[in-house]
Amino acid sequence: MTLLLSAHDCDGPGDARALAQRLSALQAGRIRRLAILGKTEGTATLNDFSRELALNAATAAVRNVLGEAMLARTTMVFSTGCEGVITPFGYLMAELTEDAPRDPAGPARLALGVATSPAIPVADRGGRAHALAVAEAVRAAMADAGATADQVALVFVKSPVLPRRHLAELPPGVAARAGSTAFARAVAALGAGIALGEVDSDRVQDAAIGRDTTLHSRRVMAVSGTELAHNEVILLANIPGAGGDLRLESEPLADILDAPALLRLARRAGLAPDAHGLFTGSAPEALFLKVGIRPGGQLRGRRTTVFESEFDADKHLRPVASGLVGAIFGTTRSFISGGAEQQAPPGGGLAAMVVRG
Amino acid sequence: MTLLLSAHDCDGPGDARALAQRLSALQAGRIRRLAILGKTEGTATLNDFSRELALNAATAAVRNVLGEAMLARTTMVFSTGCEGVITPFGYLMAELTEDAPRDPAGPARLALGVATSPAIPVADRGGRAHALAVAEAVRAAMADAGATADQVALVFVKSPVLPRRHLAELPPGVAARAGSTAFARAVAALGAGIALGEVDSDRVQDAAIGRDTTLHSRRVMAVSGTELAHNEVILLANIPGAGGDLRLESEPLADILDAPALLRLARRAGLAPDAHGLFTGSAPEALFLKVGIRPGGQLRGRRTTVFESEFDADKHLRPVASGLVGAIFGTTRSFISGGAEQQAPPGGGLAAMVVRG
Amino acid sequence: MTLLLSAHDCDGPGDARALAQRLSALQAGRIRRLAILGKTEGTATLNDFSRELALNAATAAVRNVLGEAMLARTTMVFSTGCEGVITPFGYLMAELTEDAPRDPAGPARLALGVATSPAIPVADRGGRAHALAVAEAVRAAMADAGATADQVALVFVKSPVLPRRHLAELPPGVAARAGSTAFARAVAALGAGIALGEVDSDRVQDAAIGRDTTLHSRRVMAVSGTELAHNEVILLANIPGAGGDLRLESEPLADILDAPALLRLARRAGLAPDAHGLFTGSAPEALFLKVGIRPGGQLRGRRTTVFESEFDADKHLRPVASGLVGAIFGTTRSFISGGAEQQAPPGGGLAAMVVRG
Amino acid sequence: MTLLLSAHDCDGPGDARALAQRLSALQAGRIRRLAILGKTEGTATLNDFSRELALNAATAAVRNVLGEAMLARTTMVFSTGCEGVITPFGYLMAELTEDAPRDPAGPARLALGVATSPAIPVADRGGRAHALAVAEAVRAAMADAGATADQVALVFVKSPVLPRRHLAELPPGVAARAGSTAFARAVAALGAGIALGEVDSDRVQDAAIGRDTTLHSRRVMAVSGTELAHNEVILLANIPGAGGDLRLESEPLADILDAPALLRLARRAGLAPDAHGLFTGSAPEALFLKVGIRPGGQLRGRRTTVFESEFDADKHLRPVASGLVGAIFGTTRSFISGGAEQQAPPGGGLAAMVVRG
């Protein structure tokens, strides 16, 4: 199998012209899987509909170009919020079927697996049952990719929020999770962590979710959505003998300003530094960033207003990360997502990049 | 004369405890001028009142610690908006009276001048008359500092917005400026440019303001306010023989992601790079950033949503700049201001730092 | 011809289940025209996408239930913004083909006409050419309905906004209209006024649009959109001998609190008052409200913060009107739209209702 | 004792000119108590500072006009948020010292009592201890007014929010209350209910607060603030023989559209209806409204987006209520506050007015 990856910019939340172009360049007959990972503009508040719109547009583009059958082999995860200088765009990943089996002695190359969990009942969202469903789906995605837990490089999970409109029907303990994108991300991360062997399943109890900061996965980026009831998983693994020429490298971020981690990651991935020691002239094939901030909002020993302002924390974090990425890589095109609950120690995050060779 | 500079964090928009502490460390009898330049949290929309609150708190702190007389010698400019990871804080600058006159053969050191224009009539705001009043005030601040136009290193101007509530009473041409912080900044920058000899006064006509992108000053940072009717000017000049050990260096930013410009500025100012070639270990005494983006919001050849989103452009730009500054200097404490109308070519900006020696 | 009208609530911006149900109750073969007039939730800022989503969902519902051919005979106008207690919903209007011609001696009954203008070039939007294109479209809708100007009871126009992203390419005079929903509504109202003989075409010059408050139509409700480039017109006329049992009555609102006008309108339309003299027990078939406020925001001699706050004026006006309507009619279901530029004298508005018999 | 009441509009959050005028009309020597109850403009999000600004301005006005000693006898409660058509304004209540004791056989007239609780420790906020502190303060205010629980007509409580910045230091159960204005109001209402004998103290346990909807007071309006750590109480009682000519009448609201309740209240209070049966020509001396909506946001059997939108529920409710009040009373000047947690059954609210005679 060979994984191809390309990027496409969007002229608006309903624009899939560049995506259609990328799709039409593929040989439909050789495609085993398609995955689309996109940043869509929008308010990124709970009433945000750009996700549905992006989904509609992308669905229509796939259907128009490749047909209904390909749509069934396509997984899409959209993250809303392009605050700052994030260009609305998407990554298209296509895994091609190859004649030859994987050679275990070959170089480790990027392979793709996907899975979808069943719908999570409203009252289970943000709780242990939700996490276990994610774990199951991540295991299915590993099987789909033919990857062992050790080979998994990065897992994207899109996880459903418990809508606030159900508040009136919920028991108190569950009601506290209503409208919380943080809980939706936390269970997704913990579920993935269970599947990857990084998190002890027994410790993922309702009382620990979103609170026990010693629990976290190191290879997951979780986003939440209000437009879906199930969990979507896109899994990337570096597998010996997988075809193509891509691999994924990642690096934890100590905090949202951890420029040295980005520089280390770029050097390790083999990018060439520019005259200033930055990487403005040699962009990776894909760049993913998950950022968070400590509860309370302290950073580098000083106060920020991330949790004490007119808008949600994510809307502070995403534009900051776009400044960090832009400073180091000179680009506005990266998959930046805010809210790293149980995807890193408090205040930490994760950076990952796909490179050739 | 000797200029002293210190920074003080704020625990809230009404918090002046650290400022009071800094003030009490000064010898009141030796102070010729005080200037306070602060970033205050708040919504930074037109209904924002944190500026008044910060002003009230700072005023009270000065009065309590140094007395009513010192208050008359104090100039305050607050810029609202700490989106992203900007710590609410302020710089206190105190110019001391010295016995000896300046030695023109001495090293160039930082000196301070301040001025206030008369109140700008509502119908004049954002127009040529407003710009000329700023020019006059900047000339007065130069005189106050004993500086020639060439010696001026940086001018801060706070300029009054034309409130939207006057819409009904205004002629159409003027009404277009109502509620526009951009026009308030543009006239401030052009006025300062006239005084500094960088902008031809004859070209500063109503039709050119906010539109003629060939006109701009290179040594001004303009902020707008709704809490004042006059213009406040704080001027910093590097003057041979001025006392103390501070100087100010500046560097134009090609755009809001211009990390190389920050690295150049830091090196030129004499800061020591860290192992990564960044400056996370050697912060300057003060750091000022003015950032903008092209009309339309294009950056590095790609689309951004800065002008097509739920909130004002400034709220996108400030957090991005906080990510840029944090990446290079590892700090959340810098004076970042969005909106560089006629303070730079379209899309450009300005960085400046105060260093010792 | 007979006009049928029904309402359908929406469970979310992408929900068209109730609409599909209403559609399936119609006999497709007898339908000459369909018109859908909807209120969709969303942020109603320039980046709002709920309009596109509603359009997609409604389009799909019509196509699924009635087929592609009917879609071509369907006109949709969505107004975004359900702030306050406005239930997201829509009115479906279906005009049936009848065997018999209209009897000019028959009672005046409601008839429907629709039209679409060509796309308005970006540089023309908000100017005289835009208004003239609307006038042309309204005349076409009159012809479609078989109505004279006198018979027209109410015209809905959806009109394209000049997107801010074009700012950089526009001449100054035109740039002032960029991002302005007010200009989009103003030209729509003036264009309709020209077609209805209420506004003198010669006076609709660029300098007068949005400014000359003596110009206004009395029978138009204009909404603006960023998701379209052309103008959509839905026209309702009371025509002698038109079939069915509906008619439309309207009443100007002196201001957004003009409860007496609503009471007068309800009585004139024949609704039965309740014990308190309100109309909480006898809702009309459809209720339309267009509300505005004076420039400056004064109301009943007092200050409001409609133009001096964190969010756009429309977001203040819509919820207020939902309180007014709810107080008088005891319902959360009405088509409320903010921004009455040149649809009424400054501060005024318009109320209209469809009733039986 | 005689209670005087007047209203004063504000030209901005820092404007106390009209208040100063009202104050200067009083005979300082005869004043026993001053209370100021104000609506201030602002964003009404957690970072809102207009409250502090209003407090500063009002404090300065009292000090300047009546002196430091009177300031100590003055209680101020500000509620932020003038969305819709609420004029920023305040009510000034002054209770004068009289020579004669109250005549128990005299007519019931309005009397004023005030109290302040000690500061509520951060970890106690929103919990039982907070409620008990409010109960104590309300009892103190009753004693101050010389009122029995039965005579109390209305209690205003301003109650401190648990700031989100303390999140990191709090146990899970308490952390759930951080940043919640709802919890701050709930404990205030329950505490007042305990003091008034309407709520059983034993049932006010942490698990019940904000959740047990069978618990509520009927004579309290609770507002929350982030600018204070203690609770402020302003209590109004109708007491036989109290001087002056004012009395307070109140009426529960079944929901936020309960116009009939307002009509009943106005008639009972003795106001004269206009030709339409409304009360647009005979405003009360003061008008107070507390409104809420059911969890989930259903109203009159239909969906609203109050809990599923870009901004907080309060920002939907206040402008709706301003439309309701404006429809019935034709005024923009009333004390409208959103969030009726445990001040009414779910979805309900409270209206009250002060009238003469």
UniProtKB/TrEMBL annotation, chains A, B, C, D:
Give the domain of life.
Answer: Bacteria
InterPro entries, alphabetized: AtzD/Barbiturase, AtzD/Barbiturase_RUA, AtzD/Barbiturase_RUB, AtzD/Barbiturase_RUC
List, alphabetically, the Gene3D superfamilies matched: Cyanuric acid hydrolase/Barbituras, RU C (3.30.1330.160), Cyanuric acid hydrolase/Barbiturase, RU A (3.30.1330.170), Cyanuric acid hydrolase/Barbiturase, RU B (3.30.1330.180)
The UniProt keyword set, sorted, is:
Hydrolase
- Assembly and oligomerization: Homotetramer.
- Family membership, please give it: Belongs to the cyclic amide hydrolase (CyAH) family.
Q: Please state what the protein is called.
A: Ring-opening amidohydrolase
